[in-house]
Amino acid sequence: MADRTTANAAVAAAKAWDVPVIESTAALAAWLNLNTSELRWFADLKGLEYKSASSRLRNYHYCVLAKQFGRIRLLEAPKQRLKQLQRNILTEILEKVPAHSAAHGFVKKRSIKTFVAPHVGRRVVLRMDLQDFFPSFAAARIHAFFRTLGYPESVATLLGGICTNAAPRDIWKGIGVEVSLADLYAARTLYSKPHLPQGAPTSPALANLCSYRIDCRLSGLARAVGAEYTRYADDLAFSGITGVLSADRPR
Fold it and tell me: 237 with 245: CB under 8 angstroms?
């Protein structure tokens, strides 16, 4: 009964979005063509993926890559059945919610070309990357996003669980890339907490939607100084005509 009451208190903005109505755990299981035990397995709210010592019992394949400056990136590719659940969530829920106009990565009818187009011919262009983009989105933030769509707490938590992951500690043994112990420890700590996995079909859309507020703030900041702002995943770009972004701007 509590699930129905909470679901009826949907966020006003979400009423314009054509997302499915899912009022209970049982309804979510039925929507995903699962039974409730399977639903809880894939949502993994007890952290069994992190605790499991057997790759056969895990829902992800892992690949550790070295980045520039000693940083580490972990690719987390969901196995086929979990991937299909995530694709359902992507097409039936996430793609029904509009991303900010400044977001150009992984958005339909936008591309790397639309990302750079506003900056062509500008006098000053400033580029920067966000560090650890996908794993910086914690599970709690993803749960909160699904709550803003009007889903009750239990449903939002399970949807968030399906879309997040905590990587097992043993995947870092014998990784085959040269990194410092400090960087290895930092990566192991970062990825051990439930986060958006880079490799899941839902992660780019969720990252865009959860970045809506920061996109609003950066777009407003850019407009205040006569500049343009766009974002392609973790790549931010600012540009201006009059030099307001450069060191020679008027004082």
Answer: no
